[in-house]
Amino acid sequence: MAPPEQFTEANVAALKARFESAGQGHVFTFYNSLSDVEKESLFTQLQKIDPARINKLWEFAQNPPKEPENTVVEPLPESATASILDSKPEDLERWNNLGLELIGKGEVAVILLAGGQGTRLGSKAPKGAYNIGLSSKKSLFQIQAERILKVQELAAAKAQNKSKAQVPWYVMTSGPTRAMTEKFFKKERLAELSDEDNDARAQGKPYFGMDEKNVKIFEQGVLPCYDFNGKIMLANKGEVAVAPDGNGGIYKALQDEGVLDDMRKRGIKHVHAYCVDNCLAKVADPVFIGFSAEKQVKIATKVVRKRNATESVGLILSKNGRPDVVEYSEIDQATASAVDPKHPDVLKFRAANIVNHYYSFEYLDNMGDSVNALPPPIAKKKIPYFDVDKAEAVTNITKPNGIKLEQFVFDNFKWLELSEFACFEVKREDEFSPLKNADAPGAQDCPTTSRKDIKAQGKRWVEAAGATVKNGDEEGLEVSPLTSYVSIHIPTPHLPHQMHIKRYLTII
Ligand code: UTP
């Protein structure tokens, strides 16, 4: 991105000319009536918006590239997939060792997607600050940071140079979440949280005990909101209405915010990216990193098994010979319910997208201008705005009146060859429990399901380690990520009983 220009009359005139030639000059309608401070603030905001790009995105969204007449969808080829459910123990072991070795050499980084506004959950604070009701009162951010601390410890134990076993955590925020996220990480109180949650956070360490220099909070971009004619909407006389550019904004933000430069300096070669709302995310998962690194792919993705033909999840598959994500609404019923000819008890298309990715650093670093070419899907929303013709604010919006363009982080999969992509199936109960909705009777993907899933997993781990849980909480129990990263259960044919590998589990 070009460095910011000085707020001078000449620069304002040049900027205005750029917007006018793109047919977006109305954003300056009230400029002359603004105070000097407001003028500068509008100038600063508009400078970050390239009106030609904004128009191009609009065109792109209106006229997405046409699908070929005969779209062919197939499951990904077996060569590009593996499943933790039926992988050979020696493969799991090898990937795990390789992943730990790469972490031990300081070659692995983690990106957290935490720029969403969590509208469905309805929390005023960032989702990562949410307390899902565990007895420790840990927030999602804390749980995830502790997993990084633990995996660093496990990698250091095997590493030659122990001090290299560090996993930098790049936390992608957005305009609405950045300041609150920074405060939360520094242990400052947030007005948006309850006293109880603030007190719980106040007891922990800043950055959840991670080395501050390994936590980099950065910000994704925004895109203006458009009216139905493609004109940029104003939020008030001196401000354009904007919204985060979707989790697909990650690729541009990695370039614009210096994240790739930082990774390059550190010698990062492998990157794990995941969503903040998944309380079970195995952050910097050595098995997944080892699997992906061994396959030498550009991108790999974790999936869980689709529950049934009607579950509304996106599917990872091959579309016209390339990896892709197809939404459930795009697939007909016959395709959705087709069974796998080799395994008639499971669906043919069962790889449910959980937005949990591996990237080779080289791939991210070479994306160049393609970061601007992700197709932005259209979301019609109710957007409070400032009516330019009537010169008045309109806040009482009863039906969608404008459009937000949000890019999806997986929309670049289709740019890859099948050989550059891999897919790793994991167990839902061990790795995926998203926090999307507020608690309500019968609600799914809510604080209650997140809490229950963590505690049920804790109980499984304790039992796998040989303990008996008696008279306990019927939901299970919470195992601190600082104690255990995972419990690997590897059946070994040459032993009379299944052997539990407990090397990470030291709770009893
Ligand atoms: P969701 O699409 O579920 O959005 O994000 P959300 O903001 O969490 O929730 P709603 O839709 O407003 O209720 C999936 C992941 O992508 C991240 C979120 O933080 C979450 O980890 N995300 C989403 C971003 O990082 N940036 C965005 O602009 C949108």
Describe the global form. Answer: globular
Rounded to the nearest angstrom, the radius of gyration is: 24 Å
Task: Provide the spatial order of strands within the biggest beta sheet.
Answer: 2-21-11-16-10-3-4-5
Q: Characterize the largest beta sheet: strand count, sense, and whether it forms a barrel.
A: 8 strands, mixed
Count helical runs: 14
Structural class: alpha/beta
Span of the ends, CA to CA: 53 Å
Helix content: 25-40%
Mean pLDDT: 92
Topology (elements, then pairings):
Blueprint: H1 9-21, H2 36-47, H3 51-62, E1 73-74, E2 81-83, H4 89-104, E3 108-113, H5 140-158, E4 169-173, H6 178-185, H7 195-203, E5 215-219, E6 222-224, E7 234-236, E8 239-240, E9 242-244, H8 250-256, H9 259-266, E10 270-275, H10 286-295, E11 299-305, E12 315-319, E13 322-326, H11 333-337, E14 339-340, E15 343-347, E16 351-360, H12 361-365, E17 378-381, E18 385-387, E19 392-394, E20 402-405, E21 421-425, H13 428-431, H14 447-464, E22 488-490, E23 499-501
Parallel strand pairs: 2-21, 3-4, 3-10, 4-5, 11-21
Antiparallel strand pairs: 1-12, 6-9, 7-8, 10-16, 11-16, 12-13, 14-15, 17-20, 18-19, 22-23
Helix pairs in contact: 4-5, 4-10
The protein binds uridine 5'-triphosphate.
Model description:
Helix content is 29%, strand content 19%. It has helices at 9-21, 36-47, 51-62, 89-104, 140-158, 178-185, 195-203, 250-256, 259-266, 286-295, 333-337, 361-365, 428-431, 447-464, and strands at 73-74, 81-83, 108-113, 169-173, 215-219, 222-224, 234-236, 239-240, 242-244, 270-275, 299-305, 315-319, 322-326, 339-340, 343-347, 351-360, 378-381, 385-387, 392-394, 402-405, 421-425, 488-490, 499-501. Helix 4 (89-104) packs across helix 10. The model is unreliable at 490-508 (pLDDT under 50). It is of the alpha/beta class and 508 residues long. Strands 2-21-11-16-10-3-4-5 form an 8-stranded mixed sheet, with helices on both faces. It is built from 14 helices and 23 strands. Bound molecules: uridine 5'-triphosphate. Residues 113-120, 127, 172, 174, 220, 244, 246-247, 249, 275-277, 436 line the site of uridine 5'-triphosphate.
